[in-house]
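Dear colleague,

As promised, here are the two records you asked about, laid out in our usual form so they can be pasted straight into your sheet.

NAME FIELD: protein one
SEQUENCE, THEN STRUCTURE:
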Amino acid sequence: MNYFELFEIPLQFEVDTIKIKPKFLELSRKYHPDFHSHESETNQEELIEICATVNKGWQVFQEPLATLNYVLQLSGKITEQDNPVLSADFLMEMMELNELLTESNSTHFSILQEKLHQYKKDLYEGVKDLLVKSPAETAETEFERIKEYYYKSKYLDRIQKRIESGLS
C-alpha cells in the first residue's frame, strides 16, 4: 500500500496537507500502539509498522519536492540511481550562484536569496499547470518537464540550505 492509498487520496503531484491533516490524525489514533496495549505482541508489531508508515507518508506530504519524488518513483519515471542531465545554461547559472555564495558576506546573502527565490518561482511557473493534472493523465513529454523541474528544484534547495547555513 502506498501513501496515497493509506491516506485515501488520489495519486497527485501536489498534496494539500491542510485537507489531509484530519486523515493523518485519524490514522495516527487508529494505529498508534499506545491505544492498543491490550493487543498481542504480533499485533503490536504490525501497529508499530503501520504507524511508522503513516508518519513517513505524512512527512513526505509535508515537503512538496519529497511528494513529487515519491510520485515520480511510483510512476516509474525516476529511480534513486538516476543521474539527471541538466542543461549547460542552468548549470552555468548555478555555478555562478555557488561562486557568489563562497565569496559572499551577509549583504550578498539577501541578494542570493532573492535570485534563488526568482529561479524557483520561474521554474514553478513553467510546470504549475502540469502539477495539477493526475499523473495517470500526464503525457511522457510532460513527465520529462516535471522531472527536469524536480531535479532543478532539488539543486536550488541545496543552494538555499547553504545560504541558510551561512546566515546562522
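NAME FIELD: protein two
SEQUENCE, THEN STRUCTURE:
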Amino acid sequence: MNNWFCYLELTTDDLDGAEEFYGKLFNWKMSDMPGAQVPYRMIDTGQEPAGGMMKLPVPELPVAWTMYVEVEDVEASAAQVTELGGKVLMGKQAVPEHGWFAIVQDPRGAVFGLWQNK
C-alpha cells in the first residue's frame, strides 16, 4: 500500500453555497450520494482523488477541507498516531458499503483523515 491521499472532503455550514461556488470556480460536477444518511454531495473533478462535501456534523467544527490517507487498517493506524504523539479526534466510523475512516491530528495540530477500503 502506498498510503496516498485518496479522498478530499469539505465540511461546510452552507452545502448549497459551497456547491455553487466550487462548481462555478472549477467547473466541478456534483451529485447526491445515494443512500447517504445525511445530505452528501459527491464531487466529480474529472480526475483522482475523488471528493465530497457535507454539512458540518457538529456546529463547533470549522468549515474546512480534510484530506484522507489510505491505510490498510484504520484502527491500527489511529493507534500509531497516538503512539507518535498525535490524537484521535474521531475513532473508526463506518461508511456502509465503502469502508471506514477516522479523523486524527498530528503532534503539531494538523488534522487529516485515515481511510480503509472495504
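A couple of things worth noting about protein two: Strands lie at 5-12, 29-32, 40-44, 50-55, 64-70, 87-95, 99-105, 111-117. The helical segments are 15-26, 74-83.

Best,
R.
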